[in-house]
Amino acid sequence: MFTPNLEDCHQPVVELEHVSFSYRGQQVISDLSFSAKERDFVGIIGSNGAGKSTLLRMIVGLLPAGDGQIRLFGQPIRKFKDWERIGYVPQKNAFNPLFPATVREVVMSGLYNNKTLFRRVGKSQQQRCDDAMEVMGIESIAGKKIGELSGGQQQRAFLARAMINRPDLLILDEPTVGIDAKTQADFFELVTHMHQHHHMTFLMVSHDMGMVESYLGQEPKQQNGSINFYVRHSHDIQNCEVPDLQHSLS
Amino acid sequence: MVIDIMLSDFFQRALAGGILIGITAPLIGIFLVLRRLSMIGDTLAHVTIAGVALGFLIEVYPLGAGLVFAVVASFAIEKLRKAYKSYAELSIAIIMSGGVALASLFFTLGMGYNTDVMSYLFGSIYTLDTQDLYVVGAVTVVVVAVVALFFKEFFLLSFEEDAASVNGLPVRLLNMLITVLTALVISTAIKIVGALLVSALLTIPVAISLLIARSFKSSVILSVVISEIAVIIGLVIAGIWNLAPGATIVLLLILLLVLTMAGKKGLSV
């Protein structure tokens, strides 16, 4: 019987090679090498100031990597142009809660990228927005102002925005900070369900050890300073003979 | 007599100019207010006055000189904002005081404060000539076209700049575009309400719309409608009772803001 090579069948999605970062003369990240492959779920855990959010910001190009090399989908980050392949869920306090935007407007904004400049929003994009909201269970509040929603609903809206492009890599920056325990558990369940059923790689910064351990195991796969990387590899849940996972939301 | 005023050339030019500025000022103002950059309006207005003063001094078209000054200042603000990332307001303070200092210098080099320069400080919509109207018209076309073209990108940039970056949008270019458009709007609006009141036209219609609107799109439409109501009614009132038009428009906007706040409070009680 054919046995697939579990380690090699998935392509690297995020690669960090000897990455360092200093802020105001202080070394925040030092000589970090790490790789996340297709369908991996990576939990990045650490105390406040450990550099977890700095690391995420480097990976999405918001901060320049001081030293070393960052590659996304095999390309050096400087040359990377396929940003629609990446979905990003920010921290809860990343936006002005008084901003007059509806849930629909926020979810739709996930489609605005470097390849949609000068293009109008058409019916197919509207449909994708409807689909993303339906999957996240927020279609009934599409017309509500984002600032008037509960923390859990807001994060579902941001998750819908990240999912609207059907990304290959989903990045979540402390998505449940400031949300009550029950909503945190629901949100984490939703995210892990998505990991098991969609063809995506997850990178999640979290402070919640309990939830991370329950899904990613108790032992970190790697450590750098006070940042710990917990990984559930793709081959832990799916083998290479299952290439048929539909790249769709539904 | 009222009809005579309304039918006069100067009033009709004023009305046309007012209606055009009534569109562009809140259209740019909404992006400034939502990005907490309301003070940029005041800063660029003061720099424009320096340009206008220089225009009078060297006898070139004052509004044109003011416009060039405002655009150059808008680039300087962006540059300084990058240099002092954690102190964004510092760039505004530096450029504003620089603008006032330059304006004072040019005033003293010229004949002192003359009525022409004063008309730019306090606004003088009735002295709008055909050339001014062409400039205001051209700026309106540019502003409306650029905002329509980049509406969705400007929305994301204002809502969450990080997400715009992660989506690969040219954030620096878009920021620069908004600042340059602001410079264009301010330098043309000062002829209407004056440099000292120009930021009112950019911010108060937006402030009112934020109290009522349920979406971003409706905020934009409402702020333009509110601005037009204030400009048209303000100009008519000023024409009938011989009041300062700029001041009348701004006071009318403040009245609308107070009424909206009171109405909202009344509804929520």
From TrEMBL, chain A:
Domain ABC transporter: from-to ranges: 14-249
InterPro entries on file: AAA+_ATPase, ABC_transporter-like_ATP-bd, ABC_transporter-like_CS, Metal_Ion_Import_ABC, P-loop_NTPase
Keyword Methyltransferase among record annotations: no
Presence of keyword rRNA-binding: no
A GO term, aspect molecular function: ATP binding
Pfam families attached to this UniProt entry: ABC_tran
Entry's family note: Belongs to the ABC transporter superfamily.
Record-given protein name: Zinc ABC transporter ATP-binding protein
From TrEMBL, chain B:
Membrane among keywords: yes
Subcellular location field: Cell membrane; Membrane
Topological relation to the membrane, as annotated: Multi-pass membrane protein
Signal peptide start-end: none
Protein keywords: Membrane, Transmembrane, Transmembrane helix, Transport
TM annotation in the entry: 14-34, 54-78, 90-113, 133-157, 169-186, 192-213, 220-241, 247-263
Record-stated family: Belongs to the ABC-3 integral membrane protein family.
Protein name: Iron ABC transporter permease
